[in-house]
Amino acid sequence: MKAKKYILYLLCTILCSCLFFGCDRNKEQQKEKVEENHNIESNDIEDSEITKTPIITEEVINEVLENYKEKSIPSVYTGNNKKERYCNVILNENKEIEYYTVVKEEDGHYVWKYTLIENGEGSNDIWEREAVLWLDGIKKKISYSRVTVFLGEDLNEYALYIDDKEQPHIVKRNGDSCTEILGLDLRQTDFREIAVLKNGNIVSADMGKECFIYRQEDGSLITSFPCGWYESLCVKGNQIYIIDQTNSYLQHYDAEQQEFKTAIEASFNTSIRIAAREDDVYTCCFKGIYHTKESGKEFQKVLDAKTYHFAKKTAILLKFFVRDNTFYIVYGEDGGIIKKYVPAGQEDKADKFLTIYSLKNNDVILDMISEFQTKYLDTEIVYETGEGSEGSITIADRIRVLNARILAGDGPDVLVLDGLPMESYIKKGILSDLTPALEQRKKELLPTILSSYTIENKIYMLPLRFSVPIFVFSGENSEVYSTLEALVEYSEENDGVMQGGYSYSDLLEMLYYNYRPEIILEDNTINKENLKDFLEQTKRFCKSEGISETTDHLLTYLEGYSNGNDLIYGKANFLMINMNGGVELGYLPSLIEYKNGEMVGNNGIFFPSTILGINSLSKKKELAYLFFEFAISYEIQKRLIDLSGYQIDTKVLDKFAQIDLSHITNSGGDNGELIFRWFTKEESQQMIQIAKEVHTLFTVDASVWQIIQEEAIKYLKDQKTLEECVDTIANRIQLYLYEQ
């Protein structure tokens, strides 16, 4: 139950982000990706000397598509229509892309249609704009711009809108006006996907993970069946395609015959979007694009995600279309951008190459790579991660492989330093001074962040994002959490203060990052007494909080995990939350108000992320500096990537501080009797002010943390004595430090 409540909290956070950036779509896709493990079995095969390698099954031959380029379609939003918001993208009867927007005026909501006119390679693509006059009759009934225009398989135009009473309505175009389809008993749910079949019947899939089919003439329910995530719905003619509840297979329902066809094996374990064309079925997810025939039994990858925009786990896939040999994906970012994937032409040949490395896949970097390559068409970026290092078992192993390459002069040009031994790299002269590339932007970046990375007037690395640890408490004196010892005593006196389904690993991480023990001294020796005291205090805290076994959560504390809803459903009166972005307050301030509580920062601590540095031995420094300048530009800083942290650009933060989403509400309590609003402008300003005032840098050496985590858990679970645990941690860390 608590896990579900947490997912709803995350859902709220994600929706909030979408609303701010002009996308009325729900970003539940991110929730799915977090909720359901991403360990997809890859269908990748080894590259051969030819550009297209066939995958042979007993049913069908699929070609792996190589040399595809990602190209941006111009945005429909210009200086004159910035107030308009996305409300859908479709392929019309002529297979042209139509983009719909909505704007609220004094006398109601107006809908606009943009038709894409593609010219050759895309550089001269234009949008033709016209008013959707047939919806004028409902312009005063639409609430908060919640309207979706779509084309039925019967080739009639429809719109779904939500009114002020939170009731959904479906209208059908009737000449220059529209007629409401009456009798529909759509289930009450926050979000749904609507489609109309060739025979006119209405299909509705919703957040309750059920798909309904209604008769249009009287709105009566024909049938329903369980399904997976609602946005995976795709219809073609009278055929319905939608993922099942376990994401194990794609359901194919023939709505004409009212029977299920052979299910198609999927096992994507993540959110997908589906496109059907003739007898072909395609799916898209962050691993790539997959294909099968309508009668096929399983999907096979035809295009690897590589560094395309959709390779991000947090990418917001709204729509997915296939036309000839081109794929189109509509993303929630930037108000609803469209990118297309086409075979590379002669003019697309890259003559510059840049290598970027990070220990783990990084969505901020992937987003940046996609945008950089779109702007600099002559440059191709090779993105490497330690996760792919041959023979690497531990993080230390991955770092050894990287260090050997760097010292041999074969290292990457740009380093994402998260988790790497940064101080060692500075001492060894591995990192170049970034100050020349900062001159034009220095005044626009947070001075507290810049000063934290300035060493003798030089800056060797800089984070693109940072997160802020906060304490949430209700009615207590701040002394009770001023030190780890005080917090432990407070917890013991109250038989636990955090409640919630935390694991040993959760609490160990929270305490380590909020009450960091001084374990490694300046001379690189280990202070065993400090380590021992920290572990003892942590065990006492776990005991008083009632931790009895390890529970695997899908996010760590640094990534944004917290049981915030225990302020409602449990007895929690103290929380440690890592705030990972300007719009991720959600309804937390309202929960705090409900508990008569308060929210404060932790002594100005901040956690940097996506820390960029340039390899001083790189032979492509000019290009590396160009990438760094691109990374800190306002154009890139303002981009929204979920749970990635606050941007270091003051202008971006100032815009966050002006957001007021208090008109959005969510129900809570055991019977939904409590109503919680989203944050006000004043509450947003408070959080942004906390973010702006951070000054104490907390860097993470991933190898050191991995050692502490692995060994401390054994002590917390009584699998090792305290002395054994301290000695093992000290010896392992000492050995690692000697190798640097």
Keywords:
9-stranded mixed sheet; 740 residues; alpha+beta; 25% helix; 18 helices; disordered N terminus; globular; 5-stranded antiparallel sheet
Low-confidence stretches: 1-60
Largest sheet properties: 9 strands, mixed
Instruction: Tell me the strand percentage band.
Output: 25-35%
Query: What gap, in angstroms, lies between the N and C termini?
Result: 46 Å
* Secondary structure tally, helices: 18
What's the overall geometry? globular
The overall pLDDT average reads 86
Number of strands: 40
Topology:
Blueprint: H1 2-20, H2 28-35, E1 53-56, E2 61-64, E3 68-73, E4 85-91, E5 97-105, E6 108-117, E7 126-131, E8 147-151, E9 157-162, E10 168-174, E11 177-180, E12 192-196, E13 202-206, E14 210-214, E15 221-226, E16 234-236, E17 239-243, E18 249-254, E19 259-260, E20 264-265, E21 273-277, E22 280-285, E23 288-293, E24 300-304, E25 317-323, E26 326-331, E27 337-343, E28 352-358, H3 363-375, E29 379-385, H4 395-407, E30 414-416, H5 422-427, H6 435-438, H7 447-452, E31 454-455, E32 458-459, E33 462-473, H8 484-493, H9 504-514, H10 528-544, H11 566-569, E34 574-579, H12 588-594, E35 598-601, E36 605-614, H13 621-631, H14 634-637, E37 646-647, H15 650-656, E38 665-668, E39 674-677, H16 681-692, E40 696-697, H17 702-716, H18 722-739
Parallel strand pairs: 28-29, 28-30, 36-40
Antiparallel strand pairs: 1-2, 3-27, 4-5, 5-6, 6-7, 8-9, 9-10, 10-11, 12-13, 13-14, 14-15, 16-17, 17-18, 18-19, 18-20, 21-22, 22-23, 23-24, 25-26, 26-27, 30-36, 31-32, 33-34, 33-35, 33-36, 33-37, 38-39
